[in-house]
Amino acid sequence: MKVYFVGAGPGDPELLTVKGQRLLTEADVIIYAGSLVNPALLKLAKPGCSIYNSASMTLEEVIAVTRDAMAAGRMVVRLHTGDPSIYGAIREQMDELDRLNIEYCVVPGVSSFLAAAAALKKEYTLPDVSQTVIITRGAGRTEVPEKEQLRSLAAHRATMCIFLSVQMIDEVVRELLEGYTPATPVAVVEKASWPEERVVSGTLADIAGKVADAGITKTAMIVVGDVLDGDYARSRLYHPEFSHGYRSGSGASD
C-alpha cells in the first residue's frame, strides 16, 4: 500500500492523466488542495471514500490523516494542482512520510504554465528568440533568494512564466523593466483550461493597468517574453536542408 501524490492538472478534468484518474477511482482517502483543484475531479471518488480539503489543514494534520489511513490499510491519494513538483510543497510531506517509513510515489500532472501556453497558442521556445523558459514567482510570504529576484532573472530576457504573483503585478512590472524593455509582450492567463479562462495581453508598459481593469487578483499565470509576438527563425528540425537520423536533407547539416 502506498500514498500517491497526484498532479491534478491545471483545471480541466480531461487534462488529468489516465493514471491519475485511475488512482482517484481506487482511493479510499483523498486529500486535495481545495484552493486550486477543480472540485469536479472529486466526482471520480468511489462511494465511501473519505475526502479532506487540505486548504484548512496544517502539514501535521495532513500527515496524521495519511498515517492513520495507511495504518488501517486504506489507499491515500494526495491531490495537488498542476504538477506537484512546482510550488506543491510536497518535499516536506515526503520527508515526513520517510520519517514514518510510509511508502509513496509521485504521479506527474500538466502544469498551469503549459496550459497557459495552450491558451495563448504560443510556443515558449523559438529559434533566434528564446531557448530558455524560466519558471519563477515574485517574493511574497515565501521569500525568493536574492539571486533569483525577478530583476536578476529579467537580465536574461528569456521566456518567463511567473506563478503566484498577479496580485503584485505593479511590483512585478517594476522588477522586469530592469531587464526587459517596456515594449516586451506580456500575457496574463487567468484559470488556464477552466471554463472561465481569461487572457489579458499587452506589454510591460500597460499590462498592470489592464490586469487591474480586468479585476484579476489570483489564479493567474504571467507570461513575459518576445516569443509572444514578433519574428523568429525557422526551425532547423523540419527544414528541407537539414539532415538528421530520420531524414536526409538537401544540404549540409549544421
Task: Describe the secondary-structure layout.
Layout: E1 3-7, H1 18-26, E2 29-32, E3 50-53, H2 59-71, E4 76-80, H3 91-99, E5 104-107, H4 112-120, E6 133-137, H5 150-153, E7 159-163, H6 169-176, E8 185-190, E9 198-203, H7 207-214, E10 220-224
Parallel strand pairs: 1-4, 1-5, 2-3, 2-4, 6-7
Antiparallel strand pairs: 7-10, 8-9, 8-10
Helix pairs in contact: 2-3
Query: Under CATH, the topology of the largest domain is which?
Result: Methyltransferase, Cobalt-precorrin-4 Transmethylase, Domain 2
Level of helix content?
10-25%
Please list the strands of the largest sheet in the order they lie side by side: 3-2-4-1-5
Report the strand count: 10
Distance between the termini: 51 Å
- Sum up the overall morphology in one term: globular
The largest β sheet comes out as: 5 strands, parallel
The assigned structural class equals: alpha/beta
Supply the number of structural domains. 2
Q: How would you characterize this protein structure?
A:
- The chain has two domains: 3-107, Cobalt-precorrin-4 Transmethylase, domain 1; 112-228, Tetrapyrrole methylase, C-terminal domain (Methyltransferase, Cobalt-precorrin-4 Transmethylase, Domain 2, 2-Layer Sandwich).
- Helices cover 24% and strands 19% of the residues.
- It has helices at residues 18-26, 59-71, 91-99, 112-120, 150-153, 169-176, 207-214, and strands spanning 3-7, 29-32, 50-53, 76-80, 104-107, 133-137, 159-163, 185-190, 198-203, 220-224.
- It is globular, with a radius of gyration of 21 Å.
- The N and C termini lie far apart (51 Å).
